[in-house]
Amino acid sequence: MSQAIRWGILGTGKIAKAFASALKDTPGAELAAVASRSADSAAAFAAEFGAARSHASYQALADDADIDVVYIATPHPMHHDNAMLCLRGGKGVLVEKSFTMNRPQAEEIIALARQKKLFVMEAMWTRFMPAVQEAKRIVDSGEIGRAVQVNADFGFAADFAPEHRVLNPELGGGALLDLGIYPLSMAAFFLGAVESVQAQAQMGPTGVDVQTAFSLRHEGGGLSACSCSLLARTPTELTISGSKGFVRLHDRFHNTEEISVTLVSGAARSSRSIVLPRSGNGYAHEAIEVGRCLRAGLIESPIMPHAETLALMGVLDTIREQIGLRYGADRNDG
């Protein structure tokens, strides 16, 4: 591997552009190549973000010998095939969330990565934010007592046409996979593995969920209450509570720069705020972790390990079963 981590980006949509911008804020990273199914789209993306090469097919990117790792930036239903393609080409992958459409697909990706000894990670960028890492340190320190409860929401009013990715079942639409993955992943990050889940949803006219609420029981006994919505602009906050107080990640918790710690003892109450700026648009932090892992010869990140990605995909499958949300990939997997 060269000194710089040589990135490829598969896809040229909004999230791909955000990640390409973040690579400029990532020490020791270079955008080596981009791929699209359109030569013009790939060339325009490469020119805008300074990629050394552009490819008119995903296969060409997978075959590019001068790439260390590929960021998969396509819609959810394409993640499995795109990741498998790149792994077969000998490339590590950072796969945008939701990681896949279901757990069986995730198992195939991780099995191939382990067989080939290649890096793979779910792109849950929130876990790597400085403010979130500090919140985790505070919770683990015991300052708020034993953490036993998480409350988290993520919602916005999606004023989109029915064919838009967020509402289109053929593109993996729905509140759960697009937004609910955040409260779910963060609840597990702070309280540990999920033991059981109960969910309810409001389904929309396109057949996907437009609001979902779910409660989690964690293996350590803690409980989480989570919700996601494409109908309401919710507070989008996350609170971790223990016997001595609580830590709150404020508005747009998924990329917040501010947390507060409140301690309560009888009638006494004290609060402090902590501001921890993110780098650029925030995506650089997960890219930095990928680079660290690659240089260390790791095939998974301890912050977003394979086992947890698999477990959370399984929880999402259970929630979808409870609310009656099915996709084409489920039929393909029997």
Automatic annotation (TrEMBL):
Membrane-spanning intervals of the chain: none
Lipid biosynthesis in keyword set: no
Domain of life: Bacteria
Pfam family, one: GFO_IDH_MocA_C3
InterPro entries: Gfo/Idh/MocA-like_OxRdtase_N, Gfo/Idh/MocA_domain, GFO_IDH_MocA-like_dom, NAD(P)-bd_dom_sf
UniProt GO MF annotations: nucleotide binding; oxidoreductase activity
Similarity-based family: Belongs to the Gfo/Idh/MocA family.
Keywords: Oxidoreductase
Domain Gfo/Idh/MocA-like oxidoreductase N-terminal, first and last residues per copy: 5-121
Residue ranges of domain GFO/IDH/MocA-like oxidoreductase in the record: 132-247
Official protein name in the record: Predicted dehydrogenase
Lineage: Bacteria, Pseudomonadati, Pseudomonadota, Betaproteobacteria, Burkholderiales
